[in-house]
Amino acid sequence: TALRAAGSTVTVAQFSDLIAATEEFRQRSPDSDGKEQTIREALQFACVRLPRDQAADAIGVVMEKADSTQRSEMMDLLAFLGGPRALSLVSSAARSGDDLSVDTATRVLGEWLSIDAADELQKLASEISEPKYRLRAIRGLLRLGRQFDMPDRQRIDLIRRGHELAFRSEERQLAIEIAARYPSREGLQWLIRLQNSDVDVDAENSRVLLQTIASVAQRVAKDSPREVDSLLNPIR
């Protein structure tokens, strides 16, 4: 279609006009099959072609004038685009006070496709008062630790932060399960510190924690038996 073709040739200066054209197309073709897919593809074609931060800035200009519904659509586009500028714009929307924008922004950040979102998710989990949005930020932080490749130390830092912010047993247990999924010396050290800490742990999580320590220790001990033996001494 002409709209897809425009997305394939648009310049940064024309990007805002392309977004306006997609809205006109939506209004003109309210019942057409594949309408939303056509709009999405046109905008995504443009995002792939243009310098990422410049495209994000153009989307940001549109968001300033948009209603809540269009702002939400633009945030999904920013998630596709990625990069530090897109992340900053979505993070700002999460603090906007507009419920639909906050809802979309926390969802988008919780599904962000790189670990760059970790610090923002931690801040939001600390700042937001609404439990459902706090929960989304915490689970997003833990998801990063579960899904992405990274050094062991960085992974344990992410799940430690998620565990500390968690206000439900389910997320605390999820953090422990991630440490079990990626057994490492750093993970074992964190689990043991957790076991020896003064943090209140319910009976189920206490059982899971001890089982996880035993499982991770067994796997790490294959490479470092003496170190593991030394780490386990305080909880024997």
Low-confidence stretches: none
- Termini distance? 69 Å
What is the mean pLDDT? 90
Give the topology string: H per helix, E per strand.
HHHHHHHHHHHHHH
> Can you summarize the main beta sheet?
none
Number of helices: 14
Label the structural class: mainly alpha
Rg, Å, rounded: 22 Å
Number of distinct beta strands: 0
Characterize the overall form: elongated
What portion of the residues fall into strands of 2 or more residues? under 5%
Helicity, in percent? over 70%
Describe the structure.
With 236 residues, this protein is mostly helical. 76% of the residues lie in helices and 0% in strands. It has helices spanning 2-9, 15-28, 35-49, 52-65, 68-81, 84-94, 99-110, 118-127, 131-147, 152-165, 169-181, 185-196, 203-220, 225-232. The longest helix has 18 residues, at 203-220.
